[in-house]
Design goal:
This protein is α+β, with helices and mostly antiparallel strands. Helix content is 21%, strand content 34%. A seven-stranded mixed sheet has the order 1-2-5-8-9-6-7, sandwiched between helices. Strands 3-4 form a two-stranded antiparallel sheet. A hairpin with a 5-residue loop joins strand 6 and strand 7.
């Protein structure tokens, strides 16, 4: 099956060389099909065949995977549709691959930017988003580790105020306790693409 795809604003143009194609119980003759995307949720959660979270992809790619029968739609985006000239179809929010993909274990790398993302780019002491750096909750000079659970986002002012002390010693309160995010939680919290339809799949994986 061959497929050509061109995107222009909210337009998908798809061609197939097969005699017909089935989609959500409907069969289309071999022809050029125009789909208009209205009210698009920009990203779709992709599950492996075993329902484990695998990645996040664009709506266009998700629709093509369903179109080619390489995946099935598990959850639609509430209230949104994909429109052809004569028909409407639910807009995908969660899809599941029809074949299991042997993906390597996915963890979240401990980096400065990922710490900022986890903490929503806010100082964990005062809440500002300006002049940010990293702070060791337990100072490294006192045995504090360079780890997810001991690093937080802090502004330079709070970092200097805290100095070589713990938050308790400095009389400073953390907005939340630092944690190591699972890959599933990282998908939900920091991709900027979280939809309610994802929750049951991400929470089950992170439990």
């Amino acid at each position: 099956m061959a497929l050509s795809l061109r995107l222009a604003a909210t337009l998908i143009i798809a061609n197939t060389s097969s005699s017909s194609i089935a989609l959500h119980g409907h069969t289309f003759a071999r022809t050029e099909i125009w789909f208009y995307l209205k009210g698009v949720n920009s990203r779709v959660l992709v599950l492996n065949q075993d329902f484990s979270p695998l990645m996040v992809c664009s709506v266009e790619r998700a629709f093509i995977l369903v179109y080619l029968n390489k995946s099935e739609m598990v959850r639609s985006a509430n209230g949104h549709k994909i429109h052809s000239i004569t028909r409407s179809f639910p807009l995908p929010s969660v899809i599941r691959l029809n074949r299991y993909v042997n993906a390597p274990y996915k963890g979240v790398n401990l980096t400065r930017q990922n710490i900022f993302k986890r903490d929503n780019s806010e100082c964990q002491y005062c809440g500002t988003r300006r002049d940010l750096t990293l702070d060791h909750v337990v100072p490294s000079s006192r045995g504090g580790q360079h780890s997810w659970t001991n690093l937080v986002t802090a502004c330079k002012k709070c970092n200097a105020k805290k100095g070589d002390r713990t938050p308790e010693e400095a009389g400073m309160e953390l907005k939340r306790k630092p944690y190591k995010p699972s890959y599933a939680l990282f998908l939900r919290d920091v991709t900027g693409a979280h939809h309610n339809e994802w929750d049951e799949f991400l929470e089950a994986k992170s439990a």
